[in-house]
Amino acid sequence: MNVFITRKIPDELLKPLRDAGINYTEWPEQYKVPQEELIRQSKQHDALLGAGGIVMNTAFLNECSHLKVIALMSVGYDNVDISTATKLGIPVSNTPGVLSKATAETAFFLMIAAARKAFYLHRKIVEGEWHSFDPFDNLGIELDGTTLGIFGLGSIGYEMAKRCKAAYDMNIIYHNRSTNTKAEEELDAKRVSFEELLQQSDVLSTHAALTAETRNKFDKSAFSQMKKNAIFINTARGAMHNEQDLIAALQKGTIWGAGLDVTNPEPMDKNNPLLLMPTVAVLPHIGSATVNTRYAMARLAINNVIAGMRGQRLPQIVNKEVYEQ
Description:
The longest helix is centred in the C-terminal third of the chain and has 19 residues, at 291-309. The protein has helices at 15-19, 35-43, 58-63, 82-87, 100-115, 118-126, 155-168, 181-187, 194-200, 220-224, 243-251, 291-309; strands spanning 2-5, 23-26, 47-50, 69-72, 92-93, 147-151, 171-175, 190-191, 203-206, 231-234, 257-260, 280-282. By secondary structure, the chain is an alpha/beta fold. The model has no long low-confidence stretch (mean pLDDT 97). It has twelve helices and twelve strands.
């Protein structure tokens, strides 16, 4: 039994694979596995542990229909053609839950950084432009008592809302396909329409999955309905916002600022104007990048590989329909 792993994983985390008698090959490079190499390697292995947003489209899956399991080291699975995987009988797993708190902390941090122009002002110090004190220069905005809007109030959105409620007594509104009873009971959250979310939020944080419906959801039309003091936060997927429309909205003062852990495209070009804007904070997709969280994600993915190789139901399954065929 052999598994191909698309990124290097700390050796101590791989011990369960060795104990289970499963051989593994790790992609040793810092760049993503090229598609042709991914297919070549996958054909030589029985399972695939994918880290780093590797694309597994219809063409790839048809070439590698022998795979016993695809274990993703991520909560998102928009990079995998789930429908085709299911038809081919390939179970696919992800790692929800374990990264909720770390990702919410990143969103919370980006909110504060954008509100207080933190990244921009830090750069001014580095560039030697901190010369004197002006009491009315570099003013930010306060968050206490404002309204937080959550687009996609699942486990990550809930953790973000909980932090904002505790720290700033923010009013919580959200837009979901279904009601989040826990958030409504514990955080006094209110479910609203998408238009109301745009119009009422002082901070709008998106935590939904990337789907055909949510792709490009935050565009010129959406930003034009937001408050002029609004901060847009995206720690979900870059493709959920139209980056050129976001740039224009910030340049024109349509909204106040933005905090991005994900960009469109990724990696972001070093000359992107967002990086020079005073009220924008950008991180290189590190929402779950803590020791505890990344180790927990790897362990869950490895456990899914082991189960799949043994012909058992995966502990965490995306396409449960694969077991009903």
